[in-house]
Write a structure and sequence with these properties.
mainly alpha
């Protein structure tokens, strides 16, 4: 089994058959915009349209953010690294986790734990940052009690430099938009720019086929 369009289609088709689903009731397909999904001749959406010609193919709205996050500016990357180090310290041992939970309870916080992030889950990094921001006072106090001077200093710096802080930065995605490219083509250009497998596909095919 591979991620080729024909293999993905085979799995989906088997699921439709086993579940008794009607292809004619399928309204749309949302994908990450990769060539195996959008290929005009043998992409997954092309194959699905052989079953349901009227469906609409769309891009995953989160995918652009995932691509952009791979090449964030240095100041944002440094801020993210600080937050990850703090989360790893707080959640890196059962004792720290328990002490942080009790501290949050004593301070009547809305949450009692920070969140880890994973590279394969696009939303997890944003959820991690949002949780640290919500518990920023509790986190700061915990670092003081733990005498983690290095982490505390870095954390204070990021909280003070709000204009470049990754937690409150809302315009990052716009920096990765490609000038003079239509909105509906932005995902393909981002995919080509940041995805090595897509680059290989582009080199192996002519422009029309790609």
């Amino acid at each position: 089994m591979t991620t080729k369009a024909v293999d993905v289609m085979a799995v989906v088709a088997d699921f439709f058959e086993e579940s008794g689903l009607d292809w004619n009731k399928l309204e749309g397909v949302c994908t990450d915009g990769g060539p195996n999904m959008l290929g005009s001749r043998s992409g997954f959406i092309t194959l699905v349209k052989q079953k349901q010609p009227d469906l609409k193919g769309t891009h995953c709205m989160i995918h652009r953010e995932a691509l952009a996050s791979k090449t964030v500016p240095k100041n944002l990357h440094d801020a993210l690294t600080v937050i990850i180090n703090i989360v790893n310290y707080v959640k890196g041992s059962a004792l720290n986790t328990r002490l942080f939970r009790e501290l949050c309870r004593d301070m009547d916080a809305n949450h009692t734990a920070l969140l880890f992030h994973t590279q394969v889950r696009w939303l997890s990094k944003g959820n991690m940052l949002a949780r640290v921001f919500e518990l920023r006072e509790e986190t700061k106090l915990f670092l003081i009690y733990s005498n983690k001077v290095d982490l505390l200093s870095a954390f204070n710096k990021e909280l003070q430099e709000q204009r470049s802080n990754v937690i409150v930065h809302t315009d990052t995605i716009n920096a990765f938009m490609v000038d003079d490219v239509p909105e509906d083509m932005q995902n393909e250009f981002l995919e080509l720019k940041h995805n090595s497998s897509t680059k290989d596909e582009f080199r192996a095919q002519d422009l029309e086929e790609f």
